[in-house]
């Protein structure tokens, strides 16, 4: 058995409950993959996106209906060693990866205000354009369960807004394109365990601007939230799941206000009518 086959086998055997089962459940629950889809799987070089690629490959082989996959990595200006590591991992995992270059790092290099925000927007735009070029209707990203929970708390703590990372959403600027997150239920600890058990080493942070910074603001905020969740789990092991479930169980009778398509509605608009009922 080739090494990549052993790695594939570990996903559906050793990690059947914690990775494969949760991957399939998210795909089914949120209808993420449909017949004749053309899906571009985005590989950043990290453990999450490479695991996503293997899961997508597996469900394509053994799924109930046909769909296409294109495995793509955008190089925004990685160092040579980082770029080589991505290509080497793709080879090890037997993933037919297409890498294309952009000059995003060079463009944002001298930006002082919110370079991470600008970089993220530009990267997303490049990926959407590539998906259109390939004739794809969906883009798959490797965000996992922990990303969802952390993003939710970051929005509350620092953005004064209750919102989460959705399992799928339509692109606002690229008509006909949809973004999906098939690892939505998979926890980061299991992704790490899978990589470790298969002796795989992936990129951690390949950003040219933050990899040598000890306390980058955006990264430190996420780390702060991650530590907060871990501390809470010591007394409430299900706190992360409860946060997720709360977003699927919002009681609109007990919130001060809400937004829909950018339009704000206060509870006062319905308060007197509710009393009459």
Outline the structure in words.
The protein is of the alpha/beta class. It has one domain: Rossmann fold, CATH 3.40.50.620. Helix content is 49%, strand content 13%. It has 11 helices and 8 strands. The chain has helices at residues 3-12, 16-29, 47-62, 80-92, 104-108, 115-134, 145-159, 188-197, 217-233, 239-246, 268-276, and strands at 38-42, 68-75, 97-101, 138-140, 168-170, 178-180, 257-260, 263-266. The strands form 2 sheets. Strands 3-2-1-4-6-5 form a 6-stranded mixed β-sheet, sandwiched between helices. A two-stranded antiparallel ribbon has the order 7-8. A hairpin with a 7-residue loop joins strand 5 (168-170) and strand 6 (178-180). The termini are far apart.
Strand order of the largest sheet: 3-2-1-4-6-5
Total separate domains: 1
Low-confidence runs = none
Q: Tell me what the CATH architecture is.
A: 3-Layer(aba) Sandwich
Shape assignment = globular
Assigned CATH class: Alpha Beta
Strand content: 5-15%
Tell me the number of strands.
8
- The overall pLDDT, averaged over residues, is 91
What's the alpha carbon Rg, rounded to whole Å? 20 Å
Could you state the order of secondary-structure elements as H and E?
HHEHEHEHHEHEEHHHEEH
* Cα end-to-end separation: 68 Å
